[in-house]
């Protein structure tokens, strides 16, 4: 749920892991009297910006657990993005490399309010569902992505008879934000909520465009969410001023504000959303309405609600083993 620049810590961690792996696998052949500890000290000590790096390394035999080498391994450190290596490894170990996340659009004919049709969006916790970086790589916009879902509804012949969209995110619990996360940073992309129905990295992309100096900039949002409240508190500035635009979000809501100075059009500001599954449901419902259909209601599935069965009319598969590097 991050941008390319922000994901660089993962790349750095992988590079370090590969470096350590190379040390282990080549140590016996090229040690020339040096211990693996010595080689590790030499490689890490000569790394670019070594004087500004904060490193702690422990290399162990995966089969026996025996320590092979270490570098300041008792120094307490904040794991930060290195935890992604552990969580990814745990997912591979538990789920297997052939596992696929599956997000489905399921039709229940005649089971909606007053005999209308019901659509269920059934999530599996896919963290990459409509991820904007993946869509960019594929040359697909988020609006194109959503259009495929609306096309599936129309192709099933029920666009005018859908009474409600039910969001089934029950594969995960309802704790969308960990209690230890800093409340003042919950608007930032790295504190995006975690849901059984993730959507668009669980952020909005806010684009600003300068107008006349002293006037508010133009603001557009991706994906389009016209029902959300976006307060434009920014102003256009000219030469001699820095571009400092940022976005806030009121805790527990989707009231978003854009602040500070806009000097030029830049890469988008990413601001988290509250209840990303609900945003997905509202996006689908609004796109249906934009095609001159009735807009269905949107709700979450209740805890004990039986939503098994139904007719799957659209699905998105995301394999766990995706090479992003």
What would you note in describing this structure?
25% of the residues lie in helices and 23% in strands. The protein contains 6 helices and 15 strands. Strand 6 (203-209) and strand 7 (218-222) form a beta hairpin. The protein is flat. A 5-stranded mixed sheet has the order 14-5-4-3-15, with helices on one face. The chain is α/β, with parallel strands linked by helices and 325 residues long.
Report the strand count.
15
Main sheet overview: 5 strands, mixed
- What integer is the average pLDDT? 87
Distance between the termini: 15 Å
Radius of gyration: 24 Å
Widest β-sheet, arrangement of strands: 14-5-4-3-15
Shape: flat
- Determine the number of helices (DSSP H or I, runs of at least 4 residues): 6
Q: Output the helix-strand order.
A: HHEEHEEHHEEEEEEEEEHEE
Enumerate the spans where pLDDT stays under 50 for 5 or more consecutive residues: 1-32
Helix proportion of residues, in percent?
25-40%
Alpha-beta classification: alpha/beta
Share in β-strands: 15-25%
Assembly state of the chains shown:
single chain
Fold topology:
Elements: H1 8-30, H2 36-45, E1 57-60, E2 67-71, H3 83-95, E3 100-108, E4 117-122, H4 132-138, H5 142-155, E5 162-168, E6 203-209, E7 218-222, E8 230-232, E9 235-236, E10 246-249, E11 256-259, E12 261-262, E13 269-272, H6 276-290, E14 297-300, E15 311-319
Parallel strand pairs: 4-5, 5-14, 8-11, 9-12
Antiparallel strand pairs: 1-2, 3-4, 3-15, 6-7, 6-13, 10-11
Helix pairs in contact: 5-6
């Amino acid at each position: 749920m991050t941008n390319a620049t922000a994901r660089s810590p993962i790349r750095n961690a992988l590079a370090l892991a590969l470096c350590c792996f190379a040390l282990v696998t080549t140590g016996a052949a090229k040690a020339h009297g040096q211990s693996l500890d010595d080689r590790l000290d030499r490689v890490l000590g000569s790394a670019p910006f070594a004087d500004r790096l904060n490193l702690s390394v422990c290399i162990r035999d995966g089969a026996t657990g025996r320590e092979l080498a270490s570098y300041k391994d008792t120094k307490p450190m904040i794991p930060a993005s290195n935890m992604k290596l552990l969580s990814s490894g745990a997912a591979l170990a538990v789920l297997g490399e052939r596992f696929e996340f599956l997000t489905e659009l399921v039709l229940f004919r005649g089971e909606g309010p007053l005999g209308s049709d019901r659509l269920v969006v059934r999530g599996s916790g896919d963290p990459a569902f409509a991820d904007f970086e993946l869509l960019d790589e594929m040359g697909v916009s988020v609006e194109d992505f959503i259009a495929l879902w609306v096309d599936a509804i129309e192709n099933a012949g029920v666009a005018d008879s859908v009474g409600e969209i039910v969001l089934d995110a029950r594969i995960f619990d309802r704790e969308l934000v960990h209690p230890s996360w800093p409340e003042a940073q919950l608007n930032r992309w790295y504190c995006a909520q975690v849901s059984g129905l993730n959507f668009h990295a669980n952020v909005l992309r806010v684009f600003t465009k300068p107008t006349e100096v002293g006037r508010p900039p133009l603001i557009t949002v991706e994906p389009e969410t016209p029902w959300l409240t976006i307060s434009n508190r920014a102003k256009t500035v000219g030469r001699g001023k820095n571009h400092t635009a940022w976005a806030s979000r009121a805790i527990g809501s989707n009231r978003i504000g854009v602040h500070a100075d806009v000097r030029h059009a830049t890469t988008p500001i990413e601001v988290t959303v509250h209840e990303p599954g609900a945003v997905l449901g509202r996006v689908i419902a609004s796109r249906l309405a934009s095609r001159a259909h009735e807009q269905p209601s949107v709700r979450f599935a209740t805890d004990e609600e039986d939503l098994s069965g139904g007719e799957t009319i659209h699905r998105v598969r995301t394999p766990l083993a995706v090479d992003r590097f």
